[in-house]
HAD family phosphatase (Kribbibacterium absianum), 227 residues
Amino acid sequence: MTLTDQDLAPARVAGRFEAALFDFDGTIAESYHVWRRVDETFLARRGIPCPDGLGAELASRGFRAGAAWLIDRFGLDETVDEVCDEWNALGAELYLEQVRLRPGVSEYLRALKGAGVKTALVTNNDPGVIAALGPHIDRRLFDAEVYGREVRRDKRFPDIYAEGARRLGARPERALVFEDIAVGLSSAKRIGMTGVGVLSEDPHQDRDALAAAAAITIPDFQSLACA
């Protein structure tokens, strides 16, 4: 299925889809700089320089699988829980100070809900980190929230998207997925979902792969909020 910008107008979405699922980091919030800083700080404490592309390696894996990969990659002595706890502590502090929803996101989510489209947050992030945003994000914008630690496999597999649709009572083939990583869109597509690729500030985002996996790519949400 291919889409146009007009197809993403809330009234048009409501005519074709039952639900819309949204990733957080890089999709509805520009947070690449925060996680890059978390990675740099974490590795610097161990005397390890942060290599280019590390964020892309971790993005699809989620916290626990990403922590296990990092431990193996750099030969660390820590446990997965210890790595995740340190990441969460660093991330929560920086999120409160620096992360906000992208312009137009709140308005678009409200318009979708007003049109009768159910919405879900589907993120590999930790609920404690999202909660650290406090008043900067209205959690009522989402009818459901699904976190990576609540499903068996990471975003290289469709588990989190399938669970998001299940919690919303939506059929996968009637669900839109907004993502900034191609591997996530490819996973969602395997169970019949339609993907919207969202361009981000991450210089390592593979935009060609994103476009290939998506029914449409968008640069931001501002025009959609006004549609």
Remarks:
- Residues 173 and 192 are 5 Å apart (CA to CA).
- The first strand starts at residue 19 and ends at 22.
- Residues 5-30+100-225 form a domain with the Rossmann fold fold (CATH 3.40.50.1000).
